[in-house]
From TrEMBL:
Source organism of the structure: Actinokineospora auranticolor
Keyword tags: Isomerase
One BP term from GO: salicylic acid biosynthetic process
Keyword Nucleus: no
EC code: 5.4.4.2
All residue ranges annotated as the Chorismate-utilising enzyme C-terminal domain in the record: 122-384
UniProt-recorded name of the protein: isochorismate synthase
Amino acid sequence: MSPAVLVRPRPVHRAADLLSAYLPGSFYYSSAHGSILADGVHATVETRDGDRARAVSAALAAAARAGVDHPMVVGAIGFRPDGPASLVVPALVRRACAPTGDGPTGAAVAPAWTIAPRPQPSHYADAVRRALERIAGGELAKVVLGRCLDLLADAPVAVPALLARLVRADPTAHAFAVDVSAPGDPAPRTLVGASPELLVSRRGTEVVANPLAGSAPRVADEAENRRRRAALLASAKDRAEHAHVAAEVARVLGRFCRDLVVPAEPTVVGTPTMWHLSTRITGRIADPTDPGASSLAIAEALHPTPAVCGVPVDGARDAIAALEPFDRGYFTGLVGWTDARGDGEWVVTIRCAEVCDAAVRLFAGAGVVAGSDPDAELAETGAKFRTLLRALGAWER
């Protein structure tokens, strides 16, 4: 059957039911467009040659020939081109409408935590200073530097409860849970998070990307929040950083799309913990049957945007490898799904953690540009950790 005449299946479940049914090993994804719960593995997508979009297209075609109804590929791809990927054709996919925030929260998470930052906060600030030296020397225009928190609980972490808390805290976020277990892991490993940043979605001919760059922490006082939103919109530094990202996303989308619409001015969007400068870019695919214009093909062309890597990309990647004392793995990669039509949705893997038994590693990053303040970038990463720390019940620590 030609992809042009495939019929997209309609949601038949309740979003809360899918969230209740999630178990580690499943794939869960929800956004304002709907919810997906995928179980079992019909086929694993082999991506050793690096051409992931082509490998996914071949896997979907093989699944259709094998009689899989409405086959799709789900999973996650790491930050580096030679990094990890966990992509499968699931045996069973259930769909529902978008979550409403009234789903289950699950059992209480472990109350006792040991927390170790990596690197130490002072060392992260020093890394920002070294990045600023590279920027001043003309080597870079921007680089995004990340850091981790390694948490150890006094009992195994209940991933379903953690996921449910993330969804309930922000039903409009792109929430996800993906099995990313690797050889040598002492227990199953799950990548879980609630990303605010849409890398790209494709539905028929319509393509949408929503880059975020330029951030400020959100607080409890609404008057102060209004001041922070206004200051973010007026910040020359943050607007310049955002303009880098939006221009690059628009440039790449222009290779795939006609009728590209790029707003002249950013807006401010909020999560429960942060404010971000945002630009929603839309376009239309000229030929939706072209496998080279699938949602994953576009996502891979966009990745990594300057919002998670830097400018220029190769120099920023080298600086990240030199200045970050850990392997990002899936952090600042992409997570989502694509189907045999080429439709799908991929988000930037931020506001995330990897959970393995009682151990949790949280990730956060901040964009360093000329004029950045090391202490302010450290504080920004601390604010971004709050999404997962609150869901884990570890914010007080």
